[in-house]
Amino acid sequence: SSRVAEIQSQMSERAVELLGLPEDRPCLLLDVGCGSGLSGDYISDEGHYWIGMDISPAMLDVAVEREVEGDLLLADMGHGIPFRPGMFDGCISISAVQWLCNADKKSHSPPKRLYRFFSTLYTALARGSRAVLQLYPENSEQLELITAQAMRAGFTGGMVVDYPNSAKAKKFFLCLFVGASGTLPKGLGTECADGEEIHQAKFTNERTRFRNTKGKSVKKSRDWILEKKERRRRQGKEVRADTKYTGRKRRPRF
């Protein structure tokens, strides 16, 4: 659909931006999980060359029908990156890496498949280049598994989170460096209203409740409501002014 294509294009634009490619020359990029080639279209528009790999023959057929400019390869990224060392100036991946955490067959081991992917990707990238992998982790354990295997393979870097305070716009980009460690880019939407920046985004798979000293939940209390209203103000939303009646319980009606 047009909406999916628009989102794919936006995430591809952000991923290429995080690569920090030189502006004076075209680069050769690897697109892991290229699908129908929507990400590759943006790479071509930016004047770069690309090779895409995907596990789905049907998606690659769509890319061929669309006559994308990049070369296409049918391959499972869990089996490794089948290219010679130092071949690519960078790598992007949009919503693909998290699938390596699933064991679709009895022979599949997510940690081993992730390590195989990252270790061969590290080899295929030129020294000083980057890999930017946009993903949708299901929980904090999955996120830790992915990052741990990437670091084990030799990468440095970390997670860049765009709009960490938004439930819909939040996006995770694993930004990896080959060789010398660079400065991790800042995520979009990480500046608060008072000018302070959020340097870390906490990733949890369950809600954290406010609790008082007795261990009882104080959700809907005055402090909880004031904190929530302040958070919404930082997000640019219209919020009613605080008064002495904020958080006060109403009398029951008869």
TrEMBL record:
Gene3D superfamilies: Vaccinia Virus protein VP39 (3.40.50.150)
Assembly notes: Heterodimer with TRMT112; this heterodimerization is necessary for the metabolic stability and activity of the catalytic subunit BUD23. Interacts with GRIP1.
Residue span, Methyltransferase type domain: 30-106
Reactions that this protein is recorded to catalyse: a guanosine in 18S rRNA + S-adenosyl-L-methionine = an N(7)-methylguanosine in 18S rRNA + S-adenosyl-L-homocysteine
Alphabetically ordered keywords of this record: Cytoplasm, Methyltransferase, Nucleus, S-adenosyl-L-methionine, Transferase
Family in the record: Belongs to the class I-like SAM-binding methyltransferase superfamily. BUD23/WBSCR22 family.
Cell location: Cytoplasm; Nucleus
Protein task: S-adenosyl-L-methionine-dependent methyltransferase that specifically methylates the N(7) position of a guanine in 18S rRNA. Requires the methyltransferase adapter protein TRM112 for full rRNA methyltransferase activity. Involved in the pre-rRNA processing steps leading to small-subunit rRNA production independently of its RNA-modifying catalytic activity. Important for biogenesis end export of the 40S ribosomal subunit independent on its methyltransferase activity. Locus-specific steroid receptor coactivator.
InterPro entries cross-referenced by the UniProt entry: Bud23-like, Bud23_C, Methyltransf_11, SAM-dependent_MTases_sf
Name of this protein: 18S rRNA (guanine-N(7))-methyltransferase
Stretches the record annotates as Disordered: 226-254
Residue ranges with Basic and acidic residues bias: 236-245
Organism for this UniProt entry: Herpetotheres cachinnans (Laughing falcon)
GO terms assigned for molecular function: rRNA (guanine) methyltransferase activity
